[in-house]
Amino acid sequence: MFNELGETIKIAFDAIRTAKLRSMLASLGVVIGISFVILMGWILTGLDNAMQDTFDMIGTDMLYIDKHNWAGGSNWKEMRQRKDITLNQAKDFCERIESAEIAVPVIRTRRSQIKYKGQAYQASFIGTVSEHSIISSKNIASGRFFTGFEDNLSANVMVIGHKIAETVFPNEEPIGKIIKIKGRKLEIIGVMKKQGTMMMDFVDLQCYVPIKKFLSIYGRDRSFEIAVKAGSEEKLDEVRDEAQGLFREIRNLKPWAKDDFSINETKAFEEMVKSVRTTVWSIGLLMTGLSFIVGIIGIINIMFVSVTERTKEIGVRKAVGAKKRSIWLQFIIESAVLCFSGALISLIMCSVLVFAVATILPQSVPEVSFLSPTLSYELLITASLVSIFVGIVAGLIPAVRAANMDPVIAIRSD
């Protein structure tokens, strides 16, 4: 049995070596199809990692009460018509919430400018209280967060994001420097670690100031948010339920009225990402399927040509006692090897491409730094198994035709 299998495999490889160019052209469709599978899997794996980094940055045990739904799940016009969350409402909530580890009011401006040595730079500002340091202390790279005393006095201090420090102070220490915001001078007392991801790179452009200082600079004409730290993922449901009920009470909503606020968390983004991921996979699989169909048709044609060319050989082998399974196995193996060869070519090409893109491109486009310079073992194994399966499917009909030939008719053929 094993001798027969070994001899069959040897004959299959000899046939491929005899027609190298034809074999290479036959496997071209498989090369394209496998390349789609590998590159699509590589990109989606990178996106998954980037999204997980984003979730970690937002905080998997964090809830954010806001006027708007961050994931865009509700009617935008309806959300715009909601009443703003006021500072008194936010403070009342933060004082009364019991199940959460901490809750702090937050107010922000999306676009603003800072000036240093006559140069203007874009930034966004967050006004909050000193207790916010409990949430963000692990993200401080140097310096410190402002204190409760500085918060109460509306001190002229601020904590800047990583990209601000990198852009404004490329060759100097930011701590202690004075910058201007709308003509106000503020001293930098802390610098945040790099937190931005491909999906939320704006985070590194954020600057934190005491909430009273923020209001004195930008005014109160905007809605507040409330950042709620549950303490652990296990407590999220309990904290969410209490937060919803408590804030409905603070907003004086009737029992039958809809919430006029949103409770945002990473799960909302997970659902959105799942939908995007499904769409990407569907498009990728469709393109992969079309490539494989072309490849399968090409290999079937090549295998039929191979069967026709070796009709006499098949007849002689059957005449001297070769069994149907040997003939059938010979062409199945030949087809599978053709496809697997295409997969190997694709793996080499994709590995080089992936390494080049992941090591060179981020230098000019930092947003793609989530891409890995190597392919995962799971992806390589999957691509190899898929190629072998495609080869077996493509070689099945020609193999059956060869195995069912009448040896007398086959030997007589020209």
Number of domains: 2
* Averaged pLDDT: 80
Q: Kindly provide the radius of gyration, computed on alpha-carbon positions and rounded to a whole number of angstroms.
A: 32 Å
Estimate percent helicity: 55-70%
The largest sheet, given as strand count, sense and whether it forms a barrel, is:
10 strands, mixed
Strand content: 15-25%
Q: Sketch the topology as an H/E string, one letter per element.
A: HHHEHHEEHEHEHEEEHEHEHHHHH
Shape: elongated
Provide the low-confidence segments as ranges: none
**What structural class is derived from the secondary structure elements?**
alpha+beta
Measured between the Cα atoms of the first and last residue, the distance is: 32 Å
Tell how many strands the DSSP assignment holds.
10
SS summary, helix count = 15
Descriptive terms for the model:
414 residues; alpha+beta; 2 domains; ten-stranded mixed β-sheet; 10 strands
